[in-house]
C-alpha cells in the first residue's frame, strides 16, 4: 500500500443537488398568509373595540397601571354595579371604595 496515494477505505459520496419543487413557495404562502391575516384581523378588531368602547379601554388601562389582578378588576366592576355607580373608573379613583371592592 502506498501511504501517499488514495485508499479504497473511503469513497467520496456524490452530493445530490436538492431542488425545491415549484409547489414549495406556494406551500409556504398557503401557511404564512392565513397566520399573518389572522394576526392583522385581531389587531384591527382590538383597535376598533378600543374606539367603540373608550370607557372600557380606559378602565383596563388604568387597572394595568395600578397593577391590579384580573379578579380585582372584576371585583371593582361588580362593586360598581351593586353600589349603583355609573363607572367602575370612579371606584378605581377612590382609594376607600377600591379597598372595599377588593375585600
Characterise this structure:
This protein is mostly helical and 103 residues long. The protein has a domain at 56-103. The chain has helices at 24-52, 54-65, 70-83, 88-93, 95-102. α3 (70-83) crosses α5 (95-102). The chain is elongated and about 95 Å long.
Provide a compact summary of the structure:
The protein has 103 residues and is mostly helical. The chain contains 5 helices and no strands.
Keywords:
mainly alpha
Q: Which term fits the overall shape?
A: elongated
State the helical fraction: 55-70%
Give the oligomer, counting copies of the same chain as homo and different chains as hetero.
single chain
Average pLDDT score: 86
Report the total helices.
5
Q: Which stretches of 5+ consecutive residues score pLDDT under 50?
A: none
Give the strand content. Answer: under 5%
Structural class by helix and strand composition: mainly alpha
Topology pattern, helix = H, strand = E? HHHHH
Estimated radius of gyration: 31 Å
**What characterizes the major β-sheet?**
none
Number of strands: 0
The rounded distance between the terminal residues' Cα atoms is: 90 Å
Secondary-structure map:
Layout (H helix, E strand, L loop, with lengths): L23 H29 L1 H12 L4 H14 L4 H6 L1 H8 L1
Amino acid at each position: 500500500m502506498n501511504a501517499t496515494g488514495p485508499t479504497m477505505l473511503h469513497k467520496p459520496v456524490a452530493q445530490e443537488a436538492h431542488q425545491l419543487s415549484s409547489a414549495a413557495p406556494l406551500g409556504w404562502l398557503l401557511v404564512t398568509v392565513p397566520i399573518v391575516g389572522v394576526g392583522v384581523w385581531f389587531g384591527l378588531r382590538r383597535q376598533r373595540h378600543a374606539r367603540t368602547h373608550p370607557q372600557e379601554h380606559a378602565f383596563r388601562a388604568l387597572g394595568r397601571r395600578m397593577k391590579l389582578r384580573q379578579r380585582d378588576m372584576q371585583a371593582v366592576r361588580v362593586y360598581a354595579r351593586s353600589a349603583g355607580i355609573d363607572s367602575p373608573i370612579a371606584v378605581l379613583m377612590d382609594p376607600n371604595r377600591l379597598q372595599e371592592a377588593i375585600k
